[in-house]
Amino acid sequence: MADDEAKKAKQAEIERKRAEVRKRMEEASKAKKAKKGFMTPERKKKLRLLLRKKAAEELKKEQERKAAERRRIIEERCGKAKNLEDANEDSIKHIGKEYHNRMNTREDQKCDLEYEVKKKDCEISDLNAQVNDLRGKFVKPTLKKVSKYENKFAKLQKKAAEFNFRNQLKVVKKKEFTLEEEDKEKKPDWSKKGDSKVKEETEAEA
C-alpha cells in the first residue's frame, strides 16, 4: 500500500510539473504571437493614411508660408497700391516719381546681386579646380559628338589607297601566257627573207 501511494504521489508530481511546463510554453507562444502580430494589415493601412495626411498638412503649411513670405517681400519692395481715383494731377505726378525712383533703386540692387552671384560662381569653380588638383583628379573636357561610321569609311578609304592592286601584280614573260593573236601577227623567218629581197629589187629598179 505504501509503495502504491508513493508511486501515485510521484506520478502526480510529474503530471503537475508537465502541466506547469506546458502552461509556460503556451504563455510564451501567446506572447510571441501577440508581439509579432502587433502591426496588423488594418493598423498598417491606418498608419499609412495618417502619415499621408500629416505630410499633406505639412506641405500645405509650407506652401502657405512661402506665399506669405512672397507677399511680404513684394509689399516691402513695391509698396502698397495707391488710391488713384480721388487723386489730382499733382499727387499722380508725385506717385509716378516715387515709383520711378523705387524702380531705379531696385534695378541697382538687381545689378549688385547679379554681380555677387557671378563672383560667387567664379570662386566656387576655382575652389573646385583646386580640390581636383589636390586629389589628382583629371576633369574630362567636353567632347564633340562624332559619327563612328565616318571614321570607319575614312579608314577603309585609306586602306584602299595604300593597297594598289596593280602594283601587287607580277610581270610574266613566259610564252605560254601570250595570246594567240600575237603569235599570228609574228611572221616566220622565210617570209622576212622574201620581204628583204623585194625591198632590194625595188631599190635596184629605182
What can be said about this structure in brief?
With 206 residues, the chain is mostly helical. It is 79% helix and 0% strand.
Q: Number of DSSP strands? A: 0
Structural class determined from secondary elements: mainly alpha
Q: Determine the N-to-C terminus distance.
A: 179 Å
Percent of residues in helices: over 70%
User: Regions with pLDDT < 50 over 5+ consecutive residues?
Assistant: none
* Shape type: flat
Q: Into which percentage range does the β-strand content fall?
A: under 5%
Report the major sheet: none
Provide a count of the helices: 7
Query: What is the residue-averaged pLDDT?
Result: 76
The SSE string, one letter per element, is: HHHHHHH
- Give me the Rg, rounded: 55 Å
Topology:
Blueprint: H1 2-36, H2 41-78, H3 89-135, H4 148-162, H5 165-168, H6 180-185, H7 189-205
GO cellular component, one term: troponin complex
Biased composition (Basic and acidic residues): 1-30
Family: Belongs to the troponin I family.
Could you describe the 3D structure shown?
By secondary structure, the protein is mainly α. Among the domains are: 30 residues; 33 residues; 50 residues. Helices cover 79% and strands 0% of the residues. The longest helix has 47 residues. The model has no long low-confidence stretch (mean pLDDT 76). It comes from Culex tarsalis. Belongs to the troponin I family. Pfam families: Troponin (PF00992).
